[in-house]
Amino acid sequence: MVSMLPLFIKVSSKDKSPYMLLEKLTTILDQLGSEEKEIKADYELVRNWFRFHEENLAQDLDDLASVCKLPQRVRRLLTYPVVGNWFLDKMAIFNPQAGHQEQVYSLLRGLTVETRFNNNHMQLLYETPEEYNRRWDEMSALMLAQPTLSAPLHEMMQTISKEIGLAVYEGRIPKSDAYTIDLGHGLVGPAESFNFLTWHFGSLLEHGETEPLDLTLMVVDDQKAQVWYERLIAVGFKDQADQQGFFPDCESALEALRRGHYDVILTDLELGKGKMGGIEFVEIAYDVQSRRGIKPRISVFSYSDEKLREAEERFRGSRWEKPLVFQQVNYNNKARFTAVDFRKEVGYTLK
Questions:
Q1: How far apart are alpha carbons 53 and 314 in whole angstroms?
Q2: C-alpha to C-alpha distance for 205 and 350, rounded to whole angstroms
């Protein structure tokens, strides 16, 4: 097969640092070809190729930046896998000093592998976002359980990302008219996405907020209420032994709300045919909490962005005083929801 590399970029023999990255990508570039195909087909080609290639493909940061010289169509598919492989290579230097660090490292490396395919460029094509987010919550819960031992892994990710950022913003990577995107968006942005895997933990650590929250929780969901509840408890919400915390419908949740004490409420919006909907439940729950002198920390989640927007519109106005936690609709879609992010949102209501 004739290489497609010349169609993408010409590598000069006079270059001090030849672009080994693009040469190593020749096989997948050939498979992608120069003609645009259906994006899902291209995504599968890239994912299948990188499943067998976790090794670092760039010899240095200048070489890594050469991915930004590719045309937009292929660059958007290849940037995160290439940057992810750079991270995996740097992460391999880390030497876990305890069993806890080994567990966190294993989860973090697995998430880094998957972030190559689940990111700002590819998340709509990624087929198992809920499992990805479950594993993210599992890692976050583990890190929060032993912050001191977990901190070095967060620092590791920061260091790798910072190295790329400084090289770009301090001008250590030579400028080139061949770049099809600026290096801030094309290289630093993707690097920060991998660094973001430990960002929630790092932010809580920095602000001295890694201790469990003294907030009881109610989760209402007709399919996986207990699963969501346990994930939230694992990242620091309070499990009160003398009251139930998860419910399959709004009716039973309201009964418990009137006789128990719940500081935070998270409800699905669609609870099944013939059942009270989440919007009506929020309105009643808000009044119940207010009458009992409990600050109404109430949020909703759903698989439907349309339903989330409807809820946001419904609760926008003077009657609904903060803290209502669902101001960021994007993160309350169940496919993108993480317990650790929800914990941070709730944390803001305590300040």
A1: 48
A2: 16
Domain that holds residue 65: 5-205
Beta bridge partners of 246: 219
Decide which of 37 and 180 is more confident.
Answer: 180
Amino acid in position 239: D
Q: Are residues 25 and 138 in the same domain?
A: yes
Q: What share of the chain is helix, strand, coil (3-state, %, to 5)?
A: 55, 5, 40
Residues 6 or more apart in contact with residue 161 via CB below 8 angstroms = 191, 192, 194, 195
- Mean pLDDT to the nearest integer, 246-268: 96
Q: Which residue has the tokens 């009251």?
A: 243
Judgement on whether residues 288 and 310 belong to the same structural domain of the protein? yes
Last residue of a domain, one of 153, 170, 205: 205
Q: What confidence score (pLDDT) does residue 5 get?
A: 42
Burial class of residue 321 in the structure, from the number of CB atoms within 10 Å of its CB (0-12 exposed, 13-18 middle, 19+ buried):
exposed
Between 186 and 12, the more confident residue is 186
Domain limit, last residue, from 187, 205, 223: 205
Task: Quote the DSSP letter at residue 212.
Answer: P
If asked whether residues 68 and 197 sit together in one domain, one would say yes
Spatial separation of the C-alpha atoms in residues 89 and 161, rounded to whole Å: 13
The reported pLDDT for the residue numbered 132 is 96
